[in-house]
Design a protein that fits this description.
single chain; 2 domains; 5-stranded antiparallel β-sheet; about 0% helix
C-alpha cells in the first residue's frame, strides 16, 4: 500500500505544522502536554494528577506500575506504556503487563517520566501509580487511562520551541484568584519563571508568534497556587522539537 503523500509534492501548499504532525518534516517532532490538578490550594503545586510539587529522579530508575484496586488480581493483564527519557536523556518507552499481584516493573530505567497510558484493550478497575521506592512519578486516575501532567523534558540532541500554552480555573468559590507559572530549568540550573498569569476564573491562552526556545535537557513545567482552596486547574503546552544540526552553519558553504 502506498504511503499517503504530502500535497506539497504536487506543487500545492500544505501547512507546515500539518506536515510535521504527519512525520513528513525530517528531524521535527511534536508534543502536546496537558495536565490537571483537581485541588489547588494556598501552596504552589505542579499541574498534574498526583498533586503537590513534582519530584524529578536524580538518576535513572526502574518504574513499578501498581494498581490501587482492593483486589489486585482484577487488574491482572492490564497493559501500561511508560514514556520518558533514559540516563542519557534519550527518548524511551516500555509497555508492561500487570500480574496477578497488581504490579509490573519496567526493565527500562527512566531519568524522566512524562507520560503513561493504558495501551491494551483491558481497562484498569482502579487508579494506577507509577513509582520507585515510594515516590510517585506518574499516576493514571481511574477512568482517564492516561496521565494528566504538565511536565516535560527536552530530549538530548534536540532544541524545543514552545508554541502555545494555556491555563484554566474552575471553582465554586467567589473572591478567589489563581496564580499560574510556566517554569523551565536548564540542565544544571534552577527553575526560572517564563510566564506568570493571574485568573479569577475562566482561562488564559498564549500563542507565541516567536516561540520560546529551550535547549536539550531543559525541564518544563506548569505550576499554580490559589488564594483560596479546592480549585480545579488545567494547563497545556504545545511544543515542536527539532534535532540539532551537525553542520556548522558559520563555516558552511553549499
Amino acid at each position: 500500500m502506498a504511503i499517503p503523500s504530502s500535497i506539497t509534492r504536487f506543487g500545492k501548499n500544505e501547512p507546515f505544522y500539518l506536515q510535521a504532525a504527519r512525520g513528513q518534516i525530517e528531524n521535527h517532532k511534536h508534543t502536546f502536554k496537558f495536565g490537571f490538578n483537581g485541588d489547588i490550594n494556598g501552596t504552589e503545586e505542579t499541574v498534574w494528577d498526583a498533586g503537590g510539587l513534582y519530584t524529578y529522579p536524580s538518576s535513572a530508575l526502574a518504574m513499578t506500575v501498581t494498581t490501587t484496586a482492593g483486589t489486585p488480581a482484577t487488574d491482572n493483564g492490564v497493559k501500561v506504556t511508560v514514556q520518558g527519557l533514559d540516563e542519557d536523556y534519550n527518548e524511551v518507552s516500555q509497555e508492561v503487563t500487570l500480574a496477578g499481584s497488581g504490579t509490573a516493573t519496567t526493565t527500562q530505567t527512566f531519568l524522566r517520566v512524562f507520560r503513561a497510558f493504558v495501551s491494551g484493550s483491558q481497562e484498569p478497575t482502579a487508579t494506577l501509580n507509577i513509582t520507585n521506592d515510594g515516590t510517585t512519578y506518574a499516576r493514571i486516575i481511574l477512568g482517564q487511562n492516561q496521565t494528566l501532567m504538565s511536565v516535560w523534558t527536552v530530549p538530548a540532541g534536540y532544541t524545543a520551541y514552545f508554541l502555545a500554552g494555556s491555563v484554566s480555573l474552575g471553582t465554586a468559590n467567589i473572591n478567589q484568584y489563581l496564580t499560574a507559572r510556566l517554569i523551565a530549568r536548564l540542565s544544571g540550573g534552577v527553575f526560572r519563571t517564563q510566564q506568570k498569569v493571574t485568573l479569577e476564573g475562566g482561562s488564559f491562552q498564549q500563542n507565541y508568534e516567536i516561540p520560546l526556545e529551550f535547549p536539550e535537557k531543559t525541564d518544563i513545567e506548569a505550576r499554580a497556587v490559589s488564594s483560596g482552596s479546592n480549585n480545579a486547574v488545567s494547563a497545556t503546552f504545545d511544543i515542536i522539537y527539532i534535532k540539532n544540526s551537525s553542520v556548522d552553519l558559520n563555516n558552511y558553504s553549499p
